[in-house]
Specification:
single chain; 128 residues; alpha+beta; 30% strand; globular
Length: 128
């Protein structure tokens, strides 16, 4: 079940998205946010996000080799921290997971590592 959830890109609460994250960061804007409903708590934040066009972080699917590290696990590109691995499940000889990643400096064609300047052991997967 966990592997199917991860493959489908469905965020788990609170493992993938907790109280410090926005629904938009988990790709939930189409199913969890109303832009036409009357007043509600957080409406101004949601309207501001919609007018900006995108969030700064996004929950993305990743794949890794070997066993998944304990989560949450910091992820790096070079020496820069770019996010966290939030959840995972075994798949084949490796694992599939969800990572909350900053989009500001993320290089999608470059792998992710579990330590600064470490070897790239995770890759971004094609997301649905």
């Amino acid at each position: 079940m966990e592997r199917a959830r991860l493959r489908a890109g469905i965020a788990a609460v609170p493992a993938d998205l907790g109280p410090g994250e926005l629904p938009n960061e988990g790709g939930l804007e189409a199913v969890a946010i109303s832009y036409t409903k009357g007043c509600y708590l957080g409406q101004e934040v949601m309207a501001r996000l919609k007018s900006m066009g995108q969030v700064r972080r996004r929950l993305l699917r990743v794949t890794g080799a070997g066993h998944a590290p304990p989560q949450p696990a910091k992820l790096y590109q070079g020496s820069k921290a770019v996010g966290e691995l939030r959840s995972s499940a075994p798949e084949g000889a490796g694992y599939i997971g969800h990572a909350l990643l900053s989009l500001l400096h993320l290089r999608r064609d470059t792998g992710l590592s579990l330590m600064p300047d470490g070897p790239a052991t995770l890759m971004l997967a094609e997301n649905p």
